[in-house]
Amino acid sequence: xxxxxxxxxxxxGLGLAAALTTTGCLQSPVGGQGExxxxxxxxxxxxxxxxxxxxxxxxxxxVEQESFExxxxxxxxxxxxxxxxxxxxxxxxxxxxxxGSGDSxxxxxxxxxxxxxxxxxxxxxxxxxxFLDYDALDRTLVPGFLxxxxxxxxxxxxxxxxxxxxxxxxxxxxxxQAGHPTEFxxxxxxxxxxxxxxxxxxxxxxxxxESAQATGWVGTDGLEQMVLVxxxxxxxxxxxxxxxxxxxxxxxxxxxxxxxxxxxxxMVLGGKRAILNTPFAEAGLPMFDQAGxxxxxxxxxxxxxxxxxxxxxxxxxxxxxxxxxxxxxxGYDGDPTLVGGDYAAVFNGNDxxxxxFMQFLSSDQFGAEWxxxxxxxxxxxxxxxxxxxDDVTRAIADMAYQASATSYDASDLMPKSVGSGTFWTExxxxxxxxxxxxxxxxxxxxxxxxxxxx
Length: 454
Known about the structure:
Radius of gyration: 22 Å
Oligomer: single chain
C-alpha cells in the first residue's frame, strides 16, 4: 500500500511548491478518485452532519489533552462548533473497532501516518485535497511532512504535531564548567570527544531502552539516525519501503556505527545491562546528579525534556544544552533530521463543521497554547516561534525547520510486524550480544512477503 519517496529535500520541496502554485494540485489532485480507496465523492460515517459538533478520537490524554483543548477553545467560541475529543491509549485497536462497527469518529488523530493505510484501502478515510488547500498547506509545512502520509499518490493525513528525534542533550552548567565544545561538525568528531571522556574516566552517553512490551524502540531510533547520516534520505526511503533488503551492506555500516556508541567499551553508563534495564524516561537523569554528571549526553526526541527533573524544566535555558546529531564524514553530505508526528484524518467528508475544524487544526495558527505549555512542536516552518516557552525548544524546532531534508521514523512506516515487532526484539538481541549480520539477517527474514499479514 505504501509508496516510496517518504521525504523531500528542502530545495526540491520549494521548487515543487512554486510549481504547484502555477499548475494546480499536481501532487494530490482535487476531485480525482483515490487509487486503492474506491472513493467516489466524500466518505461518510454515522455521525450527524451539520449539528455543530465534531467527534475526535486520539491517543494523547492527561496534560497533553488539556493543552490540546486549550488550543482549540478560541476556535470553538468563534465558530460555534463543539469539538468532543476522546483520549484512548489503545487508539490503534479502538479506531479499527469503531470503523469496523460503523461508529467512526469524524476525525482520528494518528500517532503514525502508517496507521492510515488500511483505512485508505477500505475507502473509509478522506484524501485531504478535497477539504484543504493542499498547495497552501504544502508551502507552510516542513518539507516532506505531507509525503509521509501519501498512499498511492494521494495524501490522507494532515500533520498537526511534530517530534524531532535528532537531538543530543547535555547538562549545560557542568558542560560549560568543563569547557566541552557545544557543537560537533561530524560524527567522527563527536566520537573522538566521547573517547576522550572515556580516557579521562568519564562516561559519555546516557541510554535506556526499557519500555515494557516496547523495549527496543530506542535502539531502532538510534539505527534510523545512523542510516540517515551515513547513507542519506534516498537510501533511507528505499530501506523503509524494502526496496533494499534489511541486510544490505549500507544498513550494516549504519548499525556498526551506532554500535560504536551503544556497544563501545565505557561509552554508555552501566553498559548493556543498564541499557536493557533502565526505563527510557529515566535514562537522562544521571546527567543532573548533584555530585556531577554520571553520563554526559543523551540522544533522544524532543519529548525527553518532559522526563527531566522539575527543577531543570523550570529554568531550562540555564540547565539544559542541546545540539543536533552531526553529519557522518564520508556519508550523506547534507543536514537531515529524523522526525515523527501526529496526523489528523477525516472519516466524515460530508460535514462542513469537520472541514472547518480540519482547516484550523492543520494550519500554522493552531497550537499556540500547547506550545506555550511545552512539549509540543508545530510541523509548520511558518509557526510563530515566540510561542515556544524557551530557547531550547526553539533550537530543537529549528533542527527540522532549517534541515536540508527530513525523514520520518522508519519503524513507524514499516509493516507493523517489523516496525513494532521484530525490529524492537532483534535490536534487544543485538545490544545483548548478537552480531550486526545476525541481527540484520533475522530482520530481513522477518519482513512479510507480498500478500502476507503486515
